[in-house]
Design goal:
Blueprint lengths: L3 E5 L2 H18 L11 H12 L4 E6 L2 E10 L9 E8 L8 H15 L4 E8 L10 H8 L3 E12 L2 E11 L17
Parallel strand pairs: 4-5
Antiparallel strand pairs: 1-2, 2-3, 3-4, 5-7, 6-7
Helix pairs in contact: 1-2
């Protein structure tokens, strides 16, 4: 019987498989607003850079990568240290099986140890679903307790279509004063 494992990404080992998961999001969807698939070296660098401060988690079953989730800084200034921007990508054929929820549950547990309090998701949105965007991401985040906090109209252009953008947010706890210190992922 196979077992799903959620673990920290290894840039060298995992980048090819994770890039394979990400590639269709770039080429076929408006979920990612990137136009070109990053090179393998660029993707490895992105993973390594994220791991300097934040978690980058992969879901693996029987040695096969099924999805990944990570966070990055919400803003560059020190005052944003307790807020992050989330990203999640699940392989084709694996969506709708609870994998995203498992990745985010583990991600939240790690972020709480880092004293992160706000999870923010920047999500492509459309008033009318099309082959490139269905709004499934906003529905997924809503099921996990995220609330829409911002709406930007026609701010992203891809596939000869203008797409809207929403920000959704989930609070992980109370906001104490003074704030507990932010803990880098590599220091956990």
């Amino acid at each position: 019987m196979s077992e799903l494992i959620i673990r920290t990404a290894d840039p060298e080992k995992d980048a090819p498989g994770l890039l394979a998961i990400y590639k269709p999001y770039v080429l076929e969807t408006a979920i990612s607003f990137e136009y070109e698939v990053p090179s393998l070296e660029e993707f490895k660098s992105r993973i390594a850079h994220t791991l300097e401060k934040y978690p980058y988690l992969v879901a693996e079953e029987d040695g096969k990568l099924l999805g990944y989730a990570y966070v990055g800084p919400f803003g560059a200034r020190a005052a944003y240290s307790w807020s992050v921007e989330t990203s999640i990508y699940v392989a084709k054929g694996q969506r709708g099986k609870g994998l995203g929820r498992k990745l985010y549950t583990e991600l939240e547990a790690v972020l709480k140890k880092q004293n992160v309090l706000n999870m923010n998701a920047c999500i492509g949105y459309t008033k009318q679903a099309d082959p490139h965007l269905t709004n499934a991401s906003s529905k997924f985040h809503e099921k996990l307790g995220y609330k829409q906090v911002a709406y930007f109209t026609q701010c992203g252009y891809k596939f000869n279509t203008w797409y809207d953008m929403i920000w959704m947010e989930k609070l992980l706890g109370e906001h104490p004063v003074p704030a507990k210190p932010f803990v880098k992922f590599k220091d956990l």
